[in-house]
Design goal:
Site (Stabilizes the basic form of H active site to accept a proton): 91
Radius of gyration: 15 Å
GO cellular component, one term: cytoplasm
Distance between the termini: 27 Å
Number of strands: 7
Helix content: 25-40%
CATH architecture: 3-Layer(aba) Sandwich
CATH class: Alpha Beta
Catalytic activity: an N-acyl-L-alpha-aminoacyl-tRNA + H2O = an N-acyl-L-amino acid + a tRNA + H(+)
CATH topology: Rossmann fold
Number of domains: 1
Number of helices: 6
CATH superfamily: Peptidyl-tRNA hydrolase
Pfam family, one: Pept_tRNA_hydro
Strand content: 15-25%
Site (Discriminates between blocked and unblocked aminoacyl-tRNA): 9
Length: 186
């Protein structure tokens, strides 16, 4: 089983904000597989599917970013799964818009959604796809991540979301080391 989680904040107020890059990427994946977000479970938007013979859960927590880990914890407990089954897609201010970076473990790096996940699943060892949203030192971080992308960033953003969704799909049939080799070199 693979549990792919896109991080973001629910509601129209937060649509297309930098902090919702994880939601945007997992939406791309659902669209690629012709799936609809028509269920809620574990305090999250939820899709269960089978891809190439593998059970796959797509999850968009509805708990807001700072409590994302609670939805994942419920899902892991229900399916009796562990961190080795988890892939998180989320925004990263330390990467420029248009870039993605895959990692197998690491600290939260100041990201509150990842802090919540680490505290709820009791490990930093889970696969992740970081989606670059850039940063502007003149704008306070909260305002930046809750702000919308600029018009001149749309092409780079589109590229990163496509790459992130393709990497997530690729990880279904390949181990994550192979997935990193394939997508970190681009």
């Amino acid at each position: 089983m693979k549990i792919i989680v896109g991080l973001g904040n629910p509601g129209t107020k937060y649509e297309n904000t930098r902090h919702n890059a994880g939601f945007m990427a997992i939406d791309r994946l659902a669209k690629k597989w012709n799936l609809d977000w028509n269920q809620e479970k574990f305090n999250a938007k939820f899709i269960k599917t089978k891809q190439n013979g593998e059970d796959v859960i797509l999850l968009k927590p509805l708990t807001y970013m700072n409590e994302s880990g609670f939805a994942l914890r419920e899902c892991l407990d229900f399916y009796k799964s562990g961190s080795e089954d988890v892939l998180i897609l989320y925004d990263d201010v330390d990467l420029p818009v248009g870039k993605i970076r895959l990692r197998q473990k690491g600290s939260a790096g100041g990201h509150n959604g990842i802090k919540s996940i680490i505290s709820c699943i009791f490990t930093q060892e889970f696969d992740r796809i970081r989606i670059g949203v850039g940063k502007d030192p003149k704008i306070p971080m909260v305002n930046w991540v809750l702000g919308k992308f600029k018009a001149d960033e749309k092409n780079e953003l589109d590229h990163a979301l496509q790459e992130a969704s393709e990497a997530a799909a690729y990880s279904i049939d390949h181990n994550f080391a192979q997935t990193m080799n394939q997508f970190n070199k681009k």
